[in-house]
Design brief:
Blueprint lengths: L1 E7 L3 H16 L4 E7 L3 H4 L5 E4 L7 H8 L5 E3 L2 H5 L3 H13 L1
Parallel strand pairs: 1-2, 1-3, 3-4
Helix pairs in contact: 1-5
């Protein structure tokens, strides 16, 4: 099972993306757990994740989040166009590639 955490400012947009990613995972028969947390609470939620994807509007938090997880899991920023388009397929692929690296 892939465990993917999306980090955002408020959770509204990323919750919609989580749903698109879950739908795509179901379509591809991929076992996932995907959830979202606001950036200020990432310390409480990251330990269960295999990777963290950060919403583009939080890209400035990339180094802060990397320092919190101490390189124990991969952290990357979601492409803005993929978030705007709610492209669950591409973002799911991004997460899986990060995990499998």
């Amino acid at each position: 099972m892939y465990k993917i955490l999306l980090c955002c400012m408020s959770g509204l947009t990323t919750t919609m993306l989580v749903n698109a990613m879950k739908k795509e995972a179901h379509r591809q028969n991929i076992n996932v757990m995907i959830w979202t947390a606001i950036s200020s609470a990432i310390e409480l939620f990251w330990a269960e994740a295999d990777c963290i994807l950060i919403a583009p509007q939080n890209a400035g938090d990339l180094e802060k989040i990397r320092s919190i997880v101490k390189n124990s899991i991969p952290v990357a920023v979601i492409e803005e166009k993929d978030l705007l388009e709610m492209n669950g397929e591409v973002v799911l692929k991004q997460a899986i590639e990060l995990i499998e690296k």
